[in-house]
Amino acid sequence: MRSSVRFMTAGSLLLWTVYASAQNPLLANCTRSGNLLACVDGYGNAYSVQTSGDTLYTRGFEAVSHRYWAQTNSRYGQLTFFTGLASDGESWVGYNRRVGWTTINRFSSSGGSKGAFICSRLNGCQDSPR
C-alpha cells in the first residue's frame, strides 16, 4: 500500500513538473537517482550534480555557447574549495567559507574574471572588499 501511494504521489509530481516546465521554459526538468541529479531547462541547458562523501561533482552544457564544463567542490569543515574547466579552455578556482549564517566567496578564472562577495540570510549577497 505504501509503495503505491508513493508511486501515485511521485507520478502526480512528475506530471505537474512536466506541465510547469511546458508553461515556463525557465523551470528545469530534473531527474534524481540515488546520489545523482540531472536537469535540463527549456533552452537546452543541462547540468548534473553527483555527490561522493564531502565531494560534489557538477557537469553542464550551455546551449547558447555550445560549451561543456565540469566543476569539483571539496568540503573541509566550514571551507569548500572548487575548481572548474570548460571545453573552450577556461579554468577557474575559488573557495567559500561559512561563518555562522554568512558565506564568504572568492573566485578567479583564466579568462581574467575574479570576484569576492559575501552572502547572508539577512542581507542577501553583496560585493566584498578584496
TrEMBL record:
<protein>
    <submittedName>
        <fullName>Glutamine synthetase</fullName>
    </submittedName>
</protein>
<feature type="signal peptide">
    <location>
        <begin position="1"/>
        <end position="22"/>
    </location>
</feature>
<keyword id="KW-0732">Signal</keyword>
